[in-house]
Amino acid sequence: MKIFAIAAAALLATVAYAAPALVEARNPTSVQVDFIGAANAEFTQYFPADDSLQSISNHLSVSKIHVVPAGFTGTFYGIDGSVTIVVGPGTKDVGPPQTQVSGKVRPT
Questions:
Q1: How many whole angstroms separate alpha carbon 37 and alpha carbon 42?
Q2: CA–CA separation, 67 vs 30, rounded Å?
């Protein structure tokens, strides 16, 4: 009986420890966005999933933006006035290619 109680307690502790990771996997607090330029140059930035505007400090001239996870929409603003909206998982062309200065991500 003691062995069963110890095993049950260990199992409950393991499930309780893993539960936050499972919630984060389904409802991420940050979203991966890939910015792709010419000659396969690229960089990745993570955006909070709360629709707050974030600065982008990389000066790469971006021609495509890829929002990785499903269930999120990203809006990105270029230095020359472009506005690119990407629904994840998906990739959208930036026209004309330009440095991105800010962006935001929200659940779709």
A1: 6
A2: 11
